[in-house]
Structures are given as C-alpha cells and as structure tokens.
C-alpha cells in the first residue's frame, strides 16, 4: 500500500513538471476556449441579421408612408320615419313622423398618390356616386376629391384631388414578384387606425377572388390577384402593398372571410396600364363596352343544353351598342371579332373588348333559335 502512494506522488510530480516546462499540453482548456469563442460569435451574427431585416422594413415604410392617404366619405342620409298613436285624437289617431336627416362622415378606405393631384384606390371604396369624398394625408391634411374615374374592368379608381402637394409613390413591377418575397401592407384598417403597417410574404400569384366592401355591399370577381399573409382588414382597401424598397407592387383589395392571414391585392402593373389609359384620354378612363351582362357556357353546359359554347346574354343595357346591333336576351355569342368564345372564363369577352378602341366596328356571331347570325356593332365609351 505504501508503495502505491509513493508511485502516485511520483506520477503527480512528473505531470506538474511536464506542464510547467511545456512538455504536456492541456487540451481540455483549449477545448473550453473554443466553446467560449463559438458561443460569443453566435449571438453577434443573429443580432446583425435582425437589425438588417428591421432596417429594411423601416426604410421601406419611411419611403412610402408620405404617399399613403385615408379616403373619407361624407353623405346625408335620412332615418326611417315612424308612426305614433294619439289616443286623444279619435279622427286621426295615427300620426306619421318623418325621418330625420343626418350627415354621415367616416373613414372608408385607403389610397396612395401617383401624382401631385391624383390618388389611386379601389373602385368599391368610392362606389357611392351620391356621396362626396376627401382624402387625408399622412400628416393630417385633408383635401376634397373633385372627381372620381372608375375602371369598369378592374376594382380600381383614380381620384382627382383639390391640391398640387401630394407626394407620388414609386410604382414597382408586379411581373417580377416571387413566392416568399417580403411585402408590407399600409392603410387604415377598420377605418379607425390610419398609417397602420403589417408585414408578410407573397403567398400566391394569379389567384381569382370575389372582392367587395362591407360598407357599400359591392362585390366583383377579380382574376390574377396577389395573395399575401400580411394582415389586410376592411379599411385597408385601396392602400399600397409595397416591397422591401418601398415600391408599390399591389393594391390591397380584399381579405378572406373564411380564414385568417389570407389577403389579396391587385398587381401594380394593372395600375400602370390604367394610368396610361387615364393620361392618354385627357384625365378620364376610356374603356369600350358593348352593353350586355352574360354568363359563359362551357362545353359541359353546352352539351347538356344542346347549344353551342359561348357567352349567354342575360341582360342588354338600354341604348347600348348591343341593343342597337340587335342583340337580345337569350342569345349566345359564339364569336367576337372572328375569335371563338369558349371555356368558363367569366372575363373572356371583356378581355377581348378591351383590346379594341372606342369607335371600332366589330363583327359578332350569335346563336338564336338554333341558327347562327352575323351582327356588327360599334363600340362606345363606358359611362
């Protein structure tokens, strides 16, 4: 036992001597230093990444926010009248009380400046032609809307504002959008919280939706829209969806009522085409129309009803080009300007009309009473 202790002391002495003279290294200490070094680097890298993302969003918002406006509606309404019973008047006990007039004024949507006196918003935001509107800028200044030009093809409108002091926003290119790309929605959600911003990503492209307004009860089918998970609420309609550079890539339009984190925006390239039309037409939107309401009969429906594919005419507008050309309710338009109408795309005829200009004479083939008939109509401006 005594020999064992002597051996241990000898080994300990050799180890300490070797360490002090550098013959023996301490790898465990170096290992701890490496761990400490790696741990100190990781939080620094994460911190830099967070700061970069935050600064990108902040810079984009700072660039776009001066161009964003709130749209306010003003309208005089009359409350329903009432009938009161007067027991002291046996000859006329029922008295009719007329309703009272009251002025309603509230924020109804959002928009963004595209020129010093022009604002783009959704058509359904300014759908009430009997109301008056004004816009409120980011710094709280209010300006009256002198005129509203509504696009019959898209849920868009151009507002002419009584000022020359708006800050135009930069329009991007929606054709270059990618899934997963960072986007920021700006607007006045619920009509109560101006300059609200939410972030998200591009969740989908080329979607088809039904857009509308809870205020006006307006609904419209929209195709080829952008889907995003950035929070979009009623009141955000018409506001810009911007990218990380602060450029507009879409116009906030609708939110899904069935689920959360699903919002939609009209691609900004549609706005650019609209503004080209507006500026080239002397400050108004010029769209040709024929004056019908129709439903598409695809191949399955056509076979079921023993009729050809095409646009089934549901309604003909009075004094429209269609009425003047002799189109009747119940007709099926099978060809427009030599192009066949088929499939279930609800906007196929509308898109073909849009390729023409006001005043063009167009040949159409209709199916009526089991016979085909050729008609010619002259396109007029949509009023």
TrEMBL record:
Instruction: Output the PANTHER family linked to this UniProt entry.
Output: PEPTIDASE S12, PROTEASE DO-LIKE 8, CHLOROPLASTIC
- Presence of keyword Protease: yes
Q: Does the keyword Transmembrane helix apply?
A: no
Matching InterPro entries, A to Z?
Chloro_Bact_Ser_Proteases (IPR051201), PDZ (IPR001478), PDZ_sf (IPR036034), Peptidase_S1_PA (IPR009003), Peptidase_S1C (IPR001940)
Query: Known Pfam families for this protein?
Result: PDZ_2 (PF13180), Trypsin_2 (PF13365)
Protein name as catalogued: PDZ domain-containing protein
GO process terms (BP): proteolysis
Keywords from the named record: Hydrolase, Protease
Q: Which residues form the PDZ domain?
A: 274-343
**SUPFAM superfamilies attached here?**
PDZ domain-like, Trypsin-like serine proteases
Cite a single GO MF annotation: serine-type endopeptidase activity
Species name = Candidatus Roizmanbacteria bacterium RIFCSPHIGHO2_02_FULL_43_11
């Amino acid at each position: 036992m005594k020999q064992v202790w002597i051996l241990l002391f000898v080994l300990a002495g050799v180890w300490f001597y070797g360490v002090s003279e550098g013959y023996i290294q301490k790898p465990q200490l170096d290992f701890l230093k490496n761990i400490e070094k790696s741990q100190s680097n990781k939080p620094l890298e994460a911190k830099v990444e967070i700061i970069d993302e935050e600064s990108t969003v902040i810079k984009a918002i700072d660039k776009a926010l001066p161009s964003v406006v709130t749209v306010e509606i003003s309208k005089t309404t009359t409350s329903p009248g009432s009938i009161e019973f007067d027991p002291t008047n046996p000859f006329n006990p029922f008295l009719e009380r007329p309703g009272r007039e009251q002025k309603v004024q509230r924020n109804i949507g959002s928009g963004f400046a595209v020129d010093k006196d022009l604002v783009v918003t959704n058509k359904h935001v300014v759908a009430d032609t009997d109301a008056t509107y004004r816009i409120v800028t980011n710094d709280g200044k209010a300006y009256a809307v002198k005129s509203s030009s509504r696009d019959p093809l898209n849920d868009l409108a151009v507002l002419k504002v009584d000022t020359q002091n708006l800050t135009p926003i930069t329009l991007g290119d929606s054709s270059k959008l990618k899934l997963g790309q960072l986007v920021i929605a700006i607007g006045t959600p619920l009509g109560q919280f101006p300059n609200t911003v939410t972030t998200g990503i591009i969740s989908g492209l080329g979607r088809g939706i039904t857009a509308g307004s809870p205020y006006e009860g307006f609904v419209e089918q929209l195709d080829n829209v952008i889907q995003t998970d950035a929070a979009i609420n009623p009141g955000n309609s018409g506001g810009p969806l911007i990218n990380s550079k602060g450029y507009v890539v879409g116009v906030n339009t609708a939110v899904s009522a069935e689920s959360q984190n699903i919002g939609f925006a009209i691609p900004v390239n549609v706005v650019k085409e609209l503004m080209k039309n507006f500026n080239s037409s002397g400050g108004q939107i010029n769209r040709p129309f024929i004056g019908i309401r129709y439903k598409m009969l695809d191949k399955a429906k056509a076979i079921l009803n023993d009729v050809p594919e095409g646009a089934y005419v549901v309604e003909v507008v009075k004094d429209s080009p269609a009425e003047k050309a002799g189109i009747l309710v119940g007709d099926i338009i099978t060809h427009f300007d030599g192009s066949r109408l088929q499939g279930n795309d609800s906007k196929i005829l509308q898109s073909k009309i849009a390729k023409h200009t006001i005043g063009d004479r167009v040949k159409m083939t209709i199916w009526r009473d089991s016979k085909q008939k050729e008609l010619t109509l002259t396109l007029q401006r949509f009023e």
